[in-house]
Specification:
Elements: H1 3-37, E1 42-49, E2 54-55, E3 65-71, E4 76-79, E5 83-84, E6 93-101, E7 104-113, E8 115-122, E9 127-128, E10 138-144, E11 149-152, E12 156-158, E13 167-174, E14 177-186, E15 193-198, E16 203-204, E17 214-219, E18 225-227, E19 232-234, E20 242-250, E21 253-262, E22 266-273, E23 278-279, E24 289-295, E25 300-303, E26 307-308, E27 317-325, E28 328-337, E29 347-353, E30 358-364, E31 374-379, H2 385-388, E32 397-405, E33 416-421, E34 432-436, E35 444-445, E36 449-452, E37 455-460, E38 464-470, H3 475-478
Parallel strand pairs: 2-7, 9-14, 16-21, 23-28
Antiparallel strand pairs: 1-3, 3-4, 5-6, 6-7, 8-10, 10-11, 12-13, 13-14, 15-17, 17-18, 19-20, 20-21, 22-24, 24-25, 26-27, 27-28, 29-30, 30-33, 31-32, 32-38, 33-37, 34-35, 34-38, 36-37
Length: 488
């Protein structure tokens, strides 16, 4: 071997050796770090609720729960991604809530209070027949079981239009509770004139005139006047920008005023979620969401034409759900839980048949959707014969049907769960379900689950054609069956 070749060979060995040494050094440095990066084991949890007493049904503010994890190595850490056994106050008095993190749990206590009665005060004077009581002159407080009280304004009034001589009892209703107050009434008088004034700055486009800034006065022939509350406004909402002529109508008399309508400017958006935990893969129910918009003139309204941007629950624990309205967004948190079972209370239901046998189908839909969004239709056997011929296994008997969408663009509602109740003559072990998107391509077999001796369940991911194949029981096994049991 030449000297240069020998030197080259030795240098390669040295380089290889150096590489091994560097690798060993790197592994020695990394392995301890990996060990340190392993998840520390929790020894126990400590939690404390720092909030106030909550009304039954009210959501517990997670920001007022302080959770600390104590680890086996003696260190501690404040925890934020914990789970709660319930996120709402469930009863009056002591509510024990379990806080869970990494398989460990502890308890916190949240006191609940229940609304027991209404305390109502009427601060106004006599009201003439035909007029109504003003909400501005009513004070309503909810009295809770712990002795506390809270003034409310979102109550309902009953019998508030005066139609009785002497005194009239007016009802106040809130959350299943009722209170009353008496109003002294005056005889109906003839009206000599009606005057209206609006003391607000302007009205936002699409909004009604705020009643708290609208003053309507009736003039009577005896020289007396009365503020009127039971009037009608036309138009009810202002849509035209600029100066609008508005008519105030009461008992056949009409007053006219000019009101400026300006572009609506959204000042803030708040969202309240009143639902519970949602199974992973399911959607938040629109009925559990309340979105309130506040505008620059102080007017507030509950809006329903908002957009739900992230309504599907995708993970265990906290899921942030966002709503959008007029380019403004607001968010809330929903607890995602493992599948809690399919609910067929809101299901698309239909029967399928091949003219010999009949089966019943149910497709479970989230409660916010109408069950008419999905429909089913039986197909003539020959419509799928060419597709079935592509299967390697021999198909003797089958029922073919289509799963259809009322609106073909709404395939975002999938996946869904479908349940099929089979005729009693089916041999369950030889029952299969196949899918074809267009009745031409090779179809895919579905993974079905046996719910009971006559029911199968399957997750479906697309509309299209489904084919239920089966083998009937031998004649000797049918003798004890009721002949009417062939059909569901």
């Amino acid at each position: 071997m030449k000297k240069t070749e020998k030197c080259s060979f030795l240098s390669k060995i040295a380089a290889a050796g150096l590489g091994v040494l560097l690798c060993l050094a790197f592994c020695a440095a990394v392995l301890p770090m990996s060990a340190q990066a392993e998840e520390k084991k929790v020894s126990y949890l400590y939690a404390m609720y720092t909030g106030e007493t909550l009304a039954v049904g009210e959501e517990i503010d997670r920001g007022k729960i302080e959770v600390t994890a104590i680890f086996e190595d003696g260190t501690s850490e404040e925890i934020f991604n914990f789970a709660l056994s319930t996120d709402r106050v469930m009863k009056d008095g002591v509510n024990v809530i379990h806080v869970v993190y990494r398989g460990k749990s502890c308890e916190i206590t949240v006191f609940g209070k229940k609304a027991q009665s209404l305390y109502v005060q009427y601060l106004g004077g006599p009201v003439s027949i035909g007029n109504s009581v003003s909400r501005d002159e009513i004070m309503v407080n909810v009295v809770f079981s712990d002795g506390s009280y809270e003034e409310i304004t979102d109550y309902q009034l009953g019998n508030h239009v005066i139609n009785t001589s002497g005194t009239q009892k007016v009802q106040v209703v809130y959350g299943g509770l009722q209170g009353t107050f008496d109003v002294v009434t005056m005889p109906e008088k003839s009206i000599s004139g009606l005057y209206a004034s609006y003391e607000g700055e302007h009205v936002l486009q699409g909004n009604p005139i705020p009643s708290k800034y609208l003053y309507v006065t009736a003039f009577y022939p005896d020289g007396t006047t009365e503020r009127i509350h039971n009037y009608t406004v036309s138009p009810a909402k202002l849509e035209d920008l600029g100066t609008n002529t508005v008519y105030i109508i009461y008992r056949g008399h009409r007053a006219e005023l000019k009101v400026e309508c300006v572009v609506k400017t959204l000042e803030s958006l708040t969202v309240t979620y009143r639902g519970g935990k949602v199974a992973i893969g399911d959607y938040v129910d629109y009925g559990d969401i309340i979105v309130k918009a506040r505008y620059d003139d102080g007017y507030e309204e509950i809006v329903e034409d908002y957009e739900l941007l992230s309504g599907r629950i995708l993970q265990l624990g906290n899921n942030t759900v966002t709503v959008s309205y007029c380019d403004m967004k607001a968010s809330f948190v929903v607890q995602g839980v493992k599948e809690i079972g399919v609910n067929y209370a809101n299901a698309a239901s239909f029967s399928i048949t091949n003219k010999v046998r009949t089966a019943d189908v149910k497709i479970a839909l989230p409660s916010r959707y109408s069950n008419s969004m999905v429909t089913g239709k039986s197909l003539k056997p020959e419509r799928v014969a060419s597709v079935l011929s592509k299967l390697e296994s021999e198909i003797i008997d089958y029922i073919a049907f289509d799963v259809l969408l009322e609106d073909e663009t709404r395939d975002d509602i999938f996946p869904l769960t479908m349940q099929i109740k089979l005729p009693s003559y089916y041999k369950m072990t030889q029952t299969h379900l196949y899918y074809s998107a267009n009745r031409r391509t090779v179809i895919a077999g579905m993974n079905i689950t046996m719910v009971d001796s006559r029911t199968i369940e399957v997750s479906i991911f697309h509309p299209g054609t489904y084919i239920l194949t089966y083998e009937e029981l031998p004649p000797e096994d049918k003798e004890d069956k009721n002949k009417d049991d062939d059909y569901l």
